[in-house]
Model the fold of this input.
Amino acid sequence: MMSMKRGRLLTLIVVACLVSGLIMTGCSKPPAGNDASNQPQAQEKVLVLGYDRDAETLNHIKTSWYSDALIYIYDRLVSRDYNFNYKPGLAESWDTSEDGLTWTFHLRKGVKFHDGKPFTAEDVKFTIDTIKNPDTASPFAGDLAAINEVVVKDDHTVDIILDYPFPNLLFNLSNTAAGIVNKEAYEKYGDEYGSKYVVGTGPYIFQEWVKGDKIVLVKNPEYNWGPEWMSNRGPALIDKIVLRTIPEENSRLMELETGGVHILRNVPAAFVEKLENNAEIEIVKGSATKLGYLAYACDKKPFTDVRVRRAINHAINREEIIQYVFRGVGQPAYGYLPPALQDEYYQDSEKDAYKYDPDKAKQLLAEAGFAGGLKLTLSSDNSTENSRLAQVLQNQLKQVGIDVEIQLYDSSSYTAMLKEGKQELFIRLYSWPNADILDWFLLSSQSPYPNHSRWVDNKTDEMLTKAARMATWEERAEEYKKAQKYLIEQAVWCPIYVPDNLIAVRKEVKNFKYHPWMLQYNDGFDLEVK
Amino acid sequence: MADNNYLIDIQDKPSSSFSDFRKRLLRSKGAVFGASIIILLIVCAILAPLIAPYGYDEMNLPEGLQAPSQKHLFGTDELGRDIFSRVVFGSRISLQIATIAVGVSLIIGLVLGALAGYYGGIVDFGICALTDTAWAFPMTLLAIAFIAALGPGLVNVMIAVALVSWAGYARLVRGQFLSLREQEFVEAARVLGMSDMRIIFRHILPNSLAPIIVLTTLEVPKAIIVESSLSFLGLGAQPPTPSWGSIISSGRSFIDTAPWISFFPGLMIMLVVLGFNLFGDALRDALDPRLKD
Done:
């Protein structure tokens, strides 16, 4: 009797303690949480962008992999509007001397860096000099090779003096790699610049970078120097941008569907149908300045023989690839540049190029002495789209007697393999809005990497160098067209497709505009918050 | 059955105990089910070209992403290949892994375990340290590390699987040898002046075979899982080789529009692993002297 009673009492006490504890914690929480801190958070507009890959560094001078964060953090001297025209950026205007060798840039006044320091001509000189300094080892240095000297005239005027005429200067200065850095901050932070400290003049300020996870940017409230062609030239409408790295394709899409990510670019074509059925997501399509191609090590047998290279070009059925690998999204490619580069693209590419013709391919192979067939390897990165493409190519090449063994690599070991030069046939996709991409990939001096097709040819060198140094943009374009015609003749690559840019945008994002180059320019897009 | 006969012969047991063992094994439903799946897998692998209606890399692009039908029993993938044919051919890869990779790891484990157990002392110490180190790593993770060093491909996967799964055998064999080497028949052999090799291979090893066979049956499904995982990650069989893991992986993008691409190879992996496990469990019970009667 006694023990039972004592037991009950004990239970009662314990229960009472638990209940009162629950009540107390329940009571104390709401005032602290709901009213004070949650309310302002709900009003903050946070835009989340999803990526497959993290930045290498946010110091754009020292990388060739440009995170989109750089678009928001920095401004450039020159900007490009939706039609690819060159428009003022940090430079209000510019003029060229008669011989085309001196370019004078008049800089915008009243621009401030994120740390409060005013933007001056010294920063422009410092940025260009740092890129060109051999000790920096900037991947972008070659693009500014034409520049001899940068002369500061006064705080807001700077002269760029060239060694030879170089109409492409405006393009290079509008590039993400040419964002203007703050001289003082860059020198002060040394090696920590680009990871812990990043200082620009752009519409967003760097706040935090958790490597492999996210980059956080907050809006620059003082910003009022946006390019004139943008609908919003003042401070950004969105308070915070988070750039998340989500390497796995399916997780990235799931995050988009559940609202964890607002904008996703490079959506694989296979997902388009599914996303289009989702009322909360809009797919924005636009022609990309990209080119997907099959390449081969031109210095190795049998690719030294132009007939073999042409045979491969004849063996590829591009329409079939577009329809079944890319689910009808994109266009077949015949030339070496994407047609979106209207001025520079060689319009007769398709006419001159090699049509799908398996019999012709077999005949060419027989002439080259490979009537009995060929055994080759085909390398690719292991993305689902490229591994699918590789299998279809394998199938198409088999029809003309080329037996191909597929070798897939993850993206970093793929680059390493190409640098080592182990490739025979391989698949690549480039993304670049200028004809100088041909210099990058095909000049002898770029072999063996990035000239991974190992194309070493004097005539190509002559033609490309001549084109780059023409006095005007128009003459330059004409020369590049001649070079493209020659490359088609030589079948240096086998161009396959020009993909469309597929960007998935959630409905909460307002005023999203498609820009073919800087895909997420801060052109006044906004976010609806519940 | 022939296999079992052999097993018993070298075990030096009277044949009455074999029929005993067979009775006990066949009484277990799991063993029968497991054995039928294993036999089915072997038949599939050997007769693949006869069973499969299409080639495993035969593309028919306009027929991509078709649901299962009479024409395509398991449907087609995004490139119009018949999933049934690919799954049937895929059984060859799983079986290859099961025999070659497990076989190699068995040999490594057996030799190291026997040396450690028989000689003891410093040999034992060294081999044990190595075994414990290998044992400490998760199998798949270590296999990925080996693939990173060797490069992707089916042969390298076999090497990797063999190199990550020998530790279990080494430990088991060492234990068996430790207890058996003190037995009278071993001492007798030694007194008769037999060489170490002869004692190890003719006298001790045959007497420790039963648990090794059980362990092997249980290691096979693990090896199949590791191979599938590596192929799923793109580190194993290269396309268009129809490894079950890589078929599942290629179906990921279509999981809600064409779930059959990933479903059937997934089902096969599950069945085969289940089959081996059930059979292995039943085999262990049947061979365990303590469970007699």
